[in-house]
Amino acid sequence: MALSIGTIWVWTTILGCFRPSDTYDVHLWGEGTELDEVLPDPEPMGGQIEYARMRMWGTNLGHGLTGLYGDSPRADGTSITVGYGWFGYPRDPGFDRVSTFLSPGPPAAANEDLCISRLVTSGYLGIMEYVDVGDHISLLADDGTKVLLERDPSVHHRPAGESWFAGYGGSLKPVIQEHELLPDNWKSGETWSVGFPGTVVPSESTMGAIPYPLIDGAMVFPPDLAGFTVDDESVRPPHHYYDDDGVWVGYEEFDDVRFPGPWKNAVSIGWEPSDDGTPLTIVVRYLGTAEEEGCDCNADCNDGFTCLEGSCVGDEGSGWNVVGEVACTVADDGEFMLTPQHMTTLDTWVKRKEIQGAVLAVARISEGTVEVADVLTYNQKRVEITPVRTRALDVIWTRLEAP
User: Fold this and answer.
1) DSSP label at 178?
2) Cβ(59)–Cβ(238) below 8 Å
3) Cβ distance 204 to 189 under 8 Å?
4) Residues pairing with 118 in the sheet
5) Please, are residues 93 and 44 in contact by the beta-carbon 8 Å criterion?
6) In the prediction, which pLDDT does 176 show?
7) Which of 53, 47, 48, 49 lies closest to 393, judged by CA?
8) Is position 28 within any domain?
9) Which of 37, 120, 129, 340 is the most core-located residue (most Cβ within 10 A)?
10) Would you call 348 helix, strand, or coil by DSSP?
11) Virtual CA dihedral for 82, 49, 166, 96, nearest 10 degrees?
């Protein structure tokens, strides 16, 4: 006997009542979480002035890690200082959060460890025009030591006709401390004054300018970053072809300084805590492939590079091609465990074939702000860009085994 559609529906409903069931707590991921509970809102700013000491204590490390240069030739074992500044309007929150050299981890409460995964470590800010503040930015210590970040370009283009770029600094200099003749250019824990002369740009310029000087700014240098270890092994500069005393030992002596990454097992990071408890920034970066100078064969490339299709390519990735990173803000208690769980989110975002190498950075970062005068725009308007972010960074880079 044929069953009607209505009868089939009734029996289906009755049988469905005998299926095992329960109450499941199912909801959209993130529901009930406010954005400011994840990270506080960044503050719109009109520029940033940064100064960094960077130590390349690992194998196949390059100046591309500064965010300003390529990786060839490699810079294993070198220690450099570098400063950079730039300004623009309207104010943009990117100046608050994004560093030219190494962006801090997420803001964390005192004695708290907090990590974040990110694919974009640099980018374009939403400024309409660059701002000129004179021919230099000066960093001045109490004893008269001075570091100048000179304007690039040094002169204004004539005629103008388009929006021109103005940046300050970008020169790599060796770290100088306690030298008999040369003045120091890095002093951990000190406060240096920050200033610029101000300027009025040519009438045909399409750039804004601050006509008044900055004379009362300040930049606080972080405490010294010392005692850096990975799994209780000291992180140190490699001595390729030389021993610890600087004596030549031959080309066959290649000092390889690298450490395991937190890919399968936890890795212990250690350091000497500071007296004032300044938090640390710990960053694991995945590096992709990038081309450096041209070549015809491997002999045309520097150590650590292979000639591929007419270009020298780094054997362990390029410092300036960051495909993703995990950045942690950690309490200054002397030890932090990097675990595979810290990398889980980033590993779901980045394809394994994109990863050519990996590096680890440990840094102390001191941030502040300075108040600057209003900008005179190219069309004679007055625009406020204060505050400006200041950031001093003490960074040690080392090499991790590729995941």
Assistant:
1) S
2) yes
3) no
4) 325
5) yes
6) 87
7) 53
8) no
9) 129
10) helix
11) 120
| Residue 16 falls inside a structural domain | no
Angle at 361 between CA 359 and CA 362, to 5 degrees: 155
C-alpha–C-alpha distance, residues 265 and 229, integer Å: 16
**Do residues 368 and 50 touch, judged by C-beta distance below 8 A?**
no
Q: Read off the DSSP letter of residue 361.
A: E
- Closest by CA to 357, choosing from 326, 389, 315, is 315
Mean pLDDT of 183-198: 94
Range of the domain at 137: 42-400
Coil/strand/helix, residue 233: strand
Which residue, 392, 390, 385, is CA-closest to 89? 385
Contact 138, 146 (CB under 8 A): yes
CA–CA–CA angle 48, 54, 56 (5° rounding): 145
- Report how far apart, in Å, the C-alpha atoms of 380 and of each of 201, 207, 208, 341, 376 are: 11, 11, 9, 54, 6
Distance CA 62, CA 70 (A): 7
Residue 282 located in a structural domain: yes
In a domain, 37, yes or no: no
CA distance 70 to 293: 9
How many folded domains does the chain comprise? Answer: 1
In this predicted model, what pLDDT tens digit does every residue of 2-43 receive, in sequence order?
A: 555 555 554 555 444 544 444 445 444 445 545 455 667 889
> Which residue type is seen at 81?
T
Q: Which of 300, 284, 280 is nearest to 292 (CA)?
A: 300
